[in-house]
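F.,

This is the one I mentioned.
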């Protein structure tokens, strides 16, 4: 049972400005002056605690920050990647070499959901009730039915079923070229996963050798053809990747925003203002990857 899983992250940009009691976004300099420093701006020490600089997420996997917003992104994306990877591993609950054995993890608690003061630590909802990037990463990682990729000596596809029903359908795994908007290889396998179980479905050896800038996509559909769960992952860290210049489309259908793209879009962020006020927007999903041809439907759930 994992009782305290965490990494330090940042609130969203407008919350952090209010935390620091400043109106203008400060310039960002190199986080590390020499090998005796941690990658941690000294200005944050006044609004943090508990040796936060020792609990940072894997920021080294992401590009260096060039401005205030990219610094917030770097910490948020790193914390999200850490939480997604660990939560999925705990939920799978067993190693590949014992894939038919019992699930060994009996639960997971993230530390922590929210914060009671303007404070930089590990909360995924800040003092002003603004959800950050790790909130949405956890929301997806906690979905009852989950497609999960594990990269080790081979690349493996798992399905975790923590619903109360048997999952029956098929899993299609694709190797996608994000610059050519093209599925280069794919295969489909039938799936049947009992309630309360995790199952190793297949490995991706069928793809053979491929460049690590290819996107790996898994789409689980039920026997009726309706989508159940989708996941995507790269076989490399973001710092080693480049992405196409995607153009996002946005429409309104009833009470939903419908988001589309012409090329693969990495980490689409929805935000807004109401009479100059950026606070109070809460989207049903945010900070999501989006593929051409997919339409993402998102609800705005609060006063704005």
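My design for it:
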């Amino acid at each position: 049972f994992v009782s305290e899983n965490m990494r330090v992250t940042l609130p969203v940009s407008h919350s952090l400005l209010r935390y620091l009691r400043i109106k203008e976004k400060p310039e960002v300099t190199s986080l590390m002056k020499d090998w005796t420093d941690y990658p941690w701006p000294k200005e944050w020490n006044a609004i943090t605690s508990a040796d936060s600089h020792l609990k940072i997420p894997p920021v080294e996997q992401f590009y260096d920050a060039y401005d205030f917003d990219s610094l917030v992104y770097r910490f948020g994306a790193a914390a999200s990647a850490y939480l997604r990877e660990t939560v999925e591993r705990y939920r799978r609950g067993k190693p590949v070499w014992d894939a038919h054995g019992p699930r060994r993890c009996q639960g997971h608690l993230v530390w922590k959901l929210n914060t009671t003061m303007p404070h930089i630590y590990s909360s995924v909802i800040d003092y002003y009730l603004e959800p950050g990037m790790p909130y949405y990463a956890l929301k997806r990682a906690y979905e009852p039915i989950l497609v999960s990729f594990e990269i080790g000596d081979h690349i493996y596809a798992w399905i975790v079923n923590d619903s109360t029903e048997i999952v029956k359908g098929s899993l299609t795994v694709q190797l996608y070229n994000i610059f050519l908007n093209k599925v280069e290889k794919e295969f489909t396998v039938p799936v049947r996963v009992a309630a309360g179980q995790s199952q190793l479905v297949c490995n991706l050896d069928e793809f053979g050798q491929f460049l690590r800038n290819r996107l790996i996509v898994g789409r689980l559909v039920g026997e009726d053809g309706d989508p159940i769960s989708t996941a995507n992952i790269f076989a490399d860290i973001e710092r080693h990747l480049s992405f196409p210049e995607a153009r996002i489309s946005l429409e309104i259908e009833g009470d939903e925003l419908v988001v589309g793209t012409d090329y693969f879009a990495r980490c689409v962020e929805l935000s807004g203002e109401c009479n100059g006020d950026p606070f109070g927007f809460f989207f049903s999903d945010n900070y999501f990857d989006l593929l051409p041809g997919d339409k993402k439907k998102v609800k705005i759930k609060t006063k704005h």
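DSSP finds three helices and 14 strands in the chain.

Talk soon.
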